[in-house]
């Protein structure tokens, strides 16, 4: 039986805002490293996250802010394609500053202020971010199955299990695409996954770090059980470290599903929906 965390509209929205901000941060970082291709990829990801549906729902409360946000993301994409590296950095810094201000306006117009300090919503926001970490890490290693689905790791833990969980084509002739792909194939005959998509890997890194930062700033000193809070803090720290050390997809799933999620359930009474 598949189980996923129940959520709230506010938590999903907060996680979306953090995800877009993560992508814009990566635009800045890659541009500073003179990696124009990766900067452009992250600009495209930021824009893709702001779907027509999301824009429409924001427009329900503030049409002007929805349009300003869409225009700013369009400008961000265009800035990564401009001719001058120096002008890119200058333009993007301005656009991202504008985006942050727009985000603040959207949150103020769309979210009840009491929800900003609600520990349950804060916990659910982190859970939503962890789902985005798992999804991006799966894309980075092209695992071709849903890493957010705990049932994928319920029996067995070896690379053979990882191999049996995914219905993948053992084609070792994957196209290499600029700086986003590091190898000629996504999986070996033994089921060992290889890092092939740097864009998604960077997204997973930043999102995991953001989840840790949010927990440490918002929830570490909450009234929930001390042991569970300590376990979450340790789990998030391990998650960030394992991602930065290019741990296996199974390593990442194990940390999230068996060390972090259960303690969120205990500490904050989060419910699971089937």
- Structural class assignment: mainly alpha
| Largest beta-sheet characterization | 2 strands, antiparallel
User: Strand-residue fraction?
Assistant: under 5%
Number of helices: 11
What is the radius of gyration?
A: 19 Å
Q: Which ranges are low-confidence, i.e. pLDDT below 50, for 5 or more consecutive residues?
A: 155-190
Shape: globular
Find the count of extended strands (DSSP E, 2+ residues). 2
Give me the strand/helix succession: EHHHHHHHHHHHE
What is the residue-averaged pLDDT? 81
Strand order of the largest sheet: 1-2
C-alpha termini separation: 7 Å
What fraction, in percent, of the residue positions are helical?
55-70%
Describe this structure in words.
By secondary structure, the protein is mainly α. It is built from 11 helices and 2 strands. The protein starts with a strand and ends with a strand. 37% of the residues are buried.
Keywords, please?
274 residues; mainly alpha; two-stranded antiparallel ribbon; 11 helices; globular
Per-chain topology:
Elements: E1 4-5, H1 9-32, H2 36-49, H3 52-61, H4 63-79, H5 85-110, H6 113-116, H7 119-140, H8 159-165, H9 198-219, H10 226-244, H11 249-268, E2 272-273
Antiparallel strand pairs: 1-2
In short:
The protein is mainly α and 274 residues long. The chain is built from 11 helices and 2 strands; from the N terminus they run E-H-H-H-H-H-H-H-H-H-H-H-E.
């Amino acid at each position: 039986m598949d189980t996923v965390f129940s959520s709230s509209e506010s938590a999903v929205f907060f996680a979306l805002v953090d995800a877009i901000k993560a992508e814009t941060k990566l635009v800045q970082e890659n541009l500073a490293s003179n990696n124009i291709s990766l900067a452009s990829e992250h600009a495209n990801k930021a824009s893709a996250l702001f779907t027509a549906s999301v824009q429409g729902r924001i427009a329900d409360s503030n049409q002007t802010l929805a349009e300003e946000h869409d225009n700013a993301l369009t400008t961000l994409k265009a800035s990564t394609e401009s001719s001058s590296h120096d002008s890119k950095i200058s333009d993007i810094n301005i656009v991202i500053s504008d985006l942050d201000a727009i985000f603040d306006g959207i949150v103020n117009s769309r979210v009840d202020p009491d929800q900003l300090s609600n520990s349950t919503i804060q916990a659910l926001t982190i859970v939503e971010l962890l789902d985005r970490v798992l999804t991006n890490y799966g894309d980075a290693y092209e695992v071709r199955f849903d890493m957010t689905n705990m049932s994928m790791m319920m029996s067995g833990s070896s690379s053979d299990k990882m191999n049996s969980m995914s219905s993948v084509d053992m084609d070792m002739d994957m196209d290499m695409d600029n700086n986003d792909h590091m190898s000629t194939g996504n999986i070996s005959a033994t089921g060992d996954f290889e890092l092939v998509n740097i864009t998604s890997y960077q997204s997973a890194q930043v999102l995991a770090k953001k989840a840790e930062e949010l927990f440490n700033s918002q929830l570490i000193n909450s009234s929930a059980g001390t042991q569970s809070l300590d376990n979450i803090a340790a789990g998030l720290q391990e998650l960030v470290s394992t991602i930065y050390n290019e741990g296996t997809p199974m390593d990442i799933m194990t940390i999230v599903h068996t060390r972090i999620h259960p303690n969120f359930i205990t500490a904050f009474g989060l419910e699971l929906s089937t």
